[in-house]
Amino acid sequence: LHTPMYFFLLNLSLLDLGCISTTLPKSMANSLWNTRAISYEGCATQVFFFLFLMSVEYFILSIMAYDRYVAICHPLHYGTLLGSRACVHMTAAAWASGFLYAMLHTANTFSLPLCRGNVLDQFFCEIPQIFKLSCSDFFHREFFILLFSAVVAFGCFTFIVLSYAHIFTIVLRISSEQRRHKAFSTCLPHLVVVSLYVITGMFAYLKPPFISSKSLNLVVAVLYSMVPPTLNPFIYSLRNQELKDAIRKV
């Protein structure tokens, strides 16, 4: 359990738990108490932690792609390239980058004057919904942060794609079918998690405006904010033989 993969999985588990805890408890409490209220400070806090945890998770998933690349393409150098110190440094960089990213977005968003009411058409504080309440030209203020976000997101996505392109190139050269299957099985959970995270996030923020509606926005928000953190533990646990046996019995 002290190998790099499990160290990254520990961080991923903490991030998934944090993502769910940022949005779901408040939503459940409002539902039970038949209210939709949240304070201005509470909304800002929710936005900050949600952005912080989601961005760090994306960075950790990128690091895990590098971990799989080194393990399969350079197995003899695995202990050197991914020693305990290197893992701690990469993870610390991911957490620090996520903190700065969330701080920039939150500070910029909540410095906007809100003059179009105080009702968000969402079950948690989401930045696009907050922008709808602003009467100022938020696009110009957000342009550089959005550009920076797009560069970072596309950079991480490209890094993951290139890592797996090298991995598949090496794996397909393996003559033994059993070894190929073993190599693919070590990558499959991570690929599923990355795909789930990227697809839901892209659909939430890049969907065309003409297909946008209140009900669709709600469904999409649930998909990208709650489904990946909920399914990640199950996806990674499917490699556990005892869990597989238990599922077969059920």
TrEMBL record:
InterPro entries assigned to the protein according to its UniProt record, in alphabetical order: GPCR_Rhodpsn, GPCR_Rhodpsn_7TM, Olfact_rcpt, Olfactory_GPCR
Transmembrane segments: 7-24, 44-66, 86-104, 143-171, 183-206, 218-238
PANTHER family in the record: OLFACTORY RECEPTOR
Keywords: Cell membrane, G-protein coupled receptor, Membrane, Olfaction, Receptor, Sensory transduction, Transducer, Transmembrane, Transmembrane helix
Name of the molecule in the record: Olfactory receptor
Gene3D superfamilies with a match to the protein in the record: Rhodopsin 7-helix transmembrane proteins
Primary localisation category: membrane
Record's bilayer topology term: Multi-pass membrane protein
GO molecular function, one term: G protein-coupled receptor activity
Subcellular location: Cell membrane
Entry GO CC: plasma membrane
UniProt feature coiled coil, ranges: none
Similarity comment text for this entry: Belongs to the G-protein coupled receptor 1 family.
Database matches in SUPFAM superfamilies: Family A G protein-coupled receptor-like (SSF81321)
Claim: Transmembrane is one of the keywords in the record: yes
Native source organism of the sequence: Atlantisia rogersi (Inaccessible Island rail)
Domain G-protein coupled receptors family 1 profile residue range list: 1-236
Function: Odorant receptor.
